[in-house]
Specification:
single chain; alpha/beta; Rossmann fold; 6 helices; 5 strands; globular
Length: 138
């Protein structure tokens, strides 16, 4: 299972969509954002989570007998400048971007400690290939 975390505009959704176009399936949820459906606890599943829910996901998986060593968390790293540019391109307002950047600064201050891997997303295809390579243990 692949879990993607990253600030607004880091490209999490784009990466998830590219992985789904390949061999991965999108995780299903039971209502809550971090309540992954137990049927989704498989090796070929990908989802986006918030940093604070990663341990909850791993605990729930362990309770269901899933090998938590197979859960790989990827922090998607992108510069603040690039994230701002991406959010402007998708139509976010400057006020919204500023608010999100402030929130992200707090919510993601320990993200690299939670993640198993840090993947730079300057080029989407390169980031996707790196995630697949790391997921396969290559």
């Amino acid at each position: 299972m692949i879990i993607l975390i990253g600030e607004s505009g880091s490209g999490k959704t784009s990466i998830l969509n590219e992985l789904v176009k390949r061999e991965y399936k999108k995780a299903e949820f039971d209502g809550e954002y971090n309540a992954i459906n137990t049927d989704s606890l498989k090796d070929d599943v990908v989802c986006i989570q918030i940093v604070s829910s990663i341990q909850d996901v791993k605990n729930r998986a362990k309770e269901k007998g899933f090998d938590i060593n197979k859960i790989k968390c990827f922090y998607i790293s992108v510069s603040a400048e690039e994230r701002t540019k991406r959010m402007l391109l998708r139509g976010d307002s400057l006020d919204s971007i500023q608010r999100r950047m402030e929130i992200d600064n707090e919510e993601f201050k320990n993200a690299k400690d939670v993640a198993d891997y840090v993947v730079k997303n300057d080029v989407l295809e390169d980031a996707v290939e790196e995630i697949i390579r790391l997921d396969r243990g290559e």
